[in-house]
Amino acid sequence: METAAPSPTRDMAVLKNDLRRHGFGILEGALDPDTTASIRTRLLEQAAAEKARGRAISNSAVEPDDDVNQWVSFLPNKGEIFRTLMNNPACLETVRHILGEEALLSEFSAHITWPGNKEMGLHIDQWWLPHPAMPGEDYARPSDARRNRQRTGAPVPADHPINPPVVCNVMWMVSDFTVENGATRLVPGSHHSGLHPDPRATYDTIHAEGPAGSFVVWEGRTWHAASLNTGNGPRLGITTYWCAPFCRQLLNFTYGLRPEVAAELIEQERALMGFKVWGTYGSTGDFDADWASPGAENLGELKG
Question: In this predicted model, what pLDDT tens digit does every residue of 156-200 receive, in sequence order?
């Protein structure tokens, strides 16, 4: 089993090699200190306000037993400063290296882990993708996929074809990530197994430690999870999770963006959030159009 740990790097070539070899890598200095501080201030302000108003949320899909951690979801609605992350050149270069030029932003939320939290179970992000099957062999029905009904095994290279990554996650370190405050833990080399971790088993993991302003990126097949926060303060992470253009996005940006936010998006942001048509997918009636149109601009019932 792969046990070496990628070290934080400022070299994109090294990062890409770490992704190929280990399934994840850490880019240090992706954000300047002032931008990092501004994002941290806005995030903490938003999180506190949501909690004070009884609007704080958890994420039972990935943390079913946790009652401490807080998620601040749909960040584009909650501050222009957050969009700095989705437009970050190093982030986009990394995502496109994994998924190609027309990858979509699927999720954009903050995950705040607090001391006393429960440890998240190891998992892969593309858990819903069916395993390859031989001709004539029965196959997994895609819409029947469940997180707890998957093919598990050891994190060693497969001896047969496996799925490619169709998602990836760029987790921004808005605070320092340390072992003590619950830095993301990952299983190096697990992306070559084509399998899921067995929730009953124990595996050797590596913690993605790095200073604020860095990001840790892993591809969709890599086993990973948030860790226990045994420190004295919160670990602040923001996930920009990306998918191939034929995948359903985790967040419904085209429907859920506040009107004033949607109106100020630049073209690149609109494309990344799924407003752009891809091979006629996502169209709103005109199959040759490059962009989706809001309902009020589309043809309705005609007579005569």
Answer: 999 999 999 999 999 999 999 999 999 999 999 999 999 999 999
The structure tokens 């994420």 sit at 59
On the 0-12 / 13-18 / 19+ scale of CB atoms within 10 A, 4 is exposed
Mean pLDDT by 10 residues, the chain (304 residues): 78 98 98 98 98 95 91 98 98 98 98 95 96 91 90 94 97 98 97 96 96 98 97 97 97 96 97 97 94 92 91
Of 259, 261, 211, nearest in space to 75 by CA = 261
pTM: 0.95
Burial group, residue 112, by CB count within 10 angstroms (0-12, 13-18, 19+) = buried
Burial class (CB in 10 A: 0-12, 13-18, 19+), 301: exposed
Whole-angstrom distance, CA of residue 288 vs CA of residue 293? 12
Three-state DSSP state, 59: coil
* Token digits of residue 123: 């998992």
Q: Per-residue pLDDT tens for 195-235?
A: 999 999 999 999 999 999 999 999 999 999 999 999 999 99
First and final C-alpha spacing in the chain: 70
Question: CA triplet 194, 200, 206: central angle to 5 degrees?
Answer: 65
Cα distance between residue 206 and residue 204, in whole Å:
7
d(CA 9, CA 14): 7
Calculate ∠ Cα 22-200-127, nearest 5°: 55
